[in-house]
Amino acid sequence: MSTPTLPARPAGGAGAGAGSGANGPRERLRRLRAELRHWRVTDLIGVAAAWVVGIGLCVVAASILGYMLVQGLRYLSLDLLVTQPEPSLNQTRSGGILDPILGTVIMVIVGTLIALPLAVGAALWVVEFGRPRWLARTVESMIEVIAGSPSIVIAIFGLAIFQLPLMSWMSFTADGGAVFGRSFLTAGAMMSLIAIPSIFTATREALLSIPQHLREASYALGKTRWSTIRAVLLPSVRPGIATGTALGMGRIAGDTAIIVVLLGATLRIEPEGGVPLWGTLTGTGSTLTSYVYNNSPAGEGGAPEKAYAAAFVLLLIVLALNALVSIAGRRDPARTLQK
Amino acid sequence: MSRPATESHDPAGSDGDGTRGAYPPPVRRIALDRAPTVVADDPAERPLVSPSIERALRPATGRERLRIDELSIFYGDAPKPAVNAVTLPVHEGEVLALIGPSGCGKTTLLRSLNRLIELTPGARRQGRIVLDGEDIDGLEMTRLRRRVSMVFQQPNPFPMSIFDNVAYALREQSRKRPSKRDLLPRVEHALRRAGLWDEVSHDLSRPALRLSGGQQQRLCIARALAVEPEVLLMDEPCSALDPISTTVIEQLIHELRSELAIVIVTHNLQQARRVADNVAFMYLGDLIEYGPTEELFERPRAERTREYVGGTFG
């Protein structure tokens, strides 16, 4: 190691000759051993247990990743990504996963677009206004209730709501007059509930960490509450909002229950009516999660290879969103406020 | 620009007494061992001249800008007011220092002058505050706070560029946003008045939070000056700064005094002595003594004041 270090300690034989220098791994191990000699047995057991658990979790995560990587790469091909799926039991003719990929993307966009203003607005209200106090507390606990609800519960509740005649504009009315209640829009509305808690919490924590005197500095310049929020507070909490949003997007991309119940279970994206974008939103489709569910051996079954490939793509999307979280969370020191 | 650039102002020229160039090291909680190096090691800093010399040469204080009349502030249900029936004048061209031990109500008094106290839940006010003959309750809040602006204890620039920090103060609550080019002269003027222009003019788009603590505080002063206030409130503006930055800010206060009235809250008696024309000593919400700086420190009339400025308590 070329880094300048302390004057070399008299190294105990083993490490010195190995060419690894005084700070080499052997020397470090020797020092660790010397230190451990002073530890109590219970502490040693505790530390060992912590190591085992930590490494064990790493192994689990790595094997999921590795398995999916191997299986996914084996069956993944460009062809698979860009062709539409076909409803065929013959695997050479059942097509690719283009529509599920697009469906996942649409789902994430719709869900996030609905969730973002609601969650940020709620967080702003709770932190910056929050009166009456009991109402603010109620809002917070209701959001916790949503965060704790299983998504299948949210899904069937959504179906009950969106099948009301009043809500027919969000999906379409089937032959015979019943409102179908299943579309990208209805699923997206329920998906936003999945994303709201993480965006809300991240925004609220970021707002709470802004020192009060920064707000006062803005008021002291004769600024209104609104321009303080817009020009001072929102820019300050942008990293927090980004973190929460990326987390929420990951949850939307990964949710299955709402898709199965609320997206209409068509393999392809089936627009409804003639209007281009609106037709897609009120139409049905599938996502990667429902595709995996329908094709894996655990689900209905017929195409495990394609299910693996789709699962791998889904994993990549969610991991990419998680990477976004850590990038967004790594704040620019120049924009980080001191307390 | 009508006003001369503040950088050219150099009171050292009028100061014959060389020994006065070195301050006694300010009595502060922080970095005491650094204080003696202030003078010798940093040629970039302004010469250190006691403002009290200039003050002695100045004419008596100008007309009354702000009048605090029987002002009392209560917090919540507390029976004893945090500020108890205080009456004080603030004159044009003067620095008024509010001193007193912690919890004596000086910051509360200061924050009531621009009605910032109303942000504190449960705070109630009695008595009148008059700005140029108008009761401040009759003024629109945003208008009042532009006429009576404020600098805080912690340097608190907004998380935006240096330019935008000052421009934010300038942009009125109007639908039409003035362009950057229109604002630049006024931003420059404010930064010059705060003595920061030369240090930041090469890159105004730099994030303000990259500046040093002392520069950040001067940016906050520039921000407060940008709205062309008549009265500038300063709440312990140097307590989070090192001795060098403190000296720079004190120099700045001294230069700004001719243009507006300054009310400064300080825990630092030496600082009050250096920068203030008049000093008000408060204790447990009561105004104990008010008078010209020299008199209050040299010949305090009240027993409490004598003990406090003599260091017996506080």
From TrEMBL, chain A:
Family membership noted in the UniProt record: Belongs to the binding-protein-dependent transport system permease family.
Region (Disordered): 1-25
Keyword field contains Transmembrane: yes
Gly residues bias locations: 12-22
Protein name, UniProt field: Phosphate transport system permease protein PstA (TC 3.A.1.7.1)
Presence of keyword Oxidoreductase: no
One Gene Ontology biological process: transmembrane transport
Positions of transmembrane segments: 44-70, 101-125, 145-167, 179-200, 307-329
Residues of the ABC transmembrane type-1 domain: 101-325
UniProt topology in membrane: Multi-pass membrane protein
Pfam family, one: BPD_transp_1
Subcellular location: Cell membrane; Membrane
Organism domain of life: Bacteria
The entry's keywords: Membrane, Transmembrane, Transmembrane helix, Transport
One Gene Ontology cellular component: plasma membrane
InterPro entries: MetI-like (IPR000515), MetI-like_sf (IPR035906)
TrEMBL record, chain B:
InterPro entries for the chain: AAA+_ATPase, ABC_transporter-like_ATP-bd, ABC_transporter-like_CS, P-loop_NTPase, PstB-like
Residue ranges, annotated region (Disordered): 1-45
The entry's keywords: ATP-binding, Nucleotide-binding, Translocase, Transport
GO cellular component, one term: membrane
Gene3D superfamilies membership: P-loop containing nucleotide triphosphate hydrolases
Family matches, as PROSITE patterns: ABC_TRANSPORTER_1 (PS00211), ABC_TRANSPORTER_2 (PS50893)
Compositional bias per record (Basic and acidic residues), positions renumbered to this chain: 1-12
Keyword RNA-binding belongs to the record: no
Entry GO MF terms: ATP binding; ATP hydrolysis activity; phosphate transmembrane transporter activity
Highest taxon of the lineage: Bacteria
Keyword Translocase: yes
GO terms for biological process, alphabetical: phosphate ion transmembrane transport
Residues of the ABC transporter domain: 66-309
One Pfam family in the UniProt entry: ABC_tran
PANTHER family for the chain: ABC TRANSPORTER I FAMILY MEMBER 17
Official protein name in the record: Phosphate transport ATP-binding protein PstB (TC 3.A.1.7.1)
UniProt organism field: Patulibacter medicamentivorans
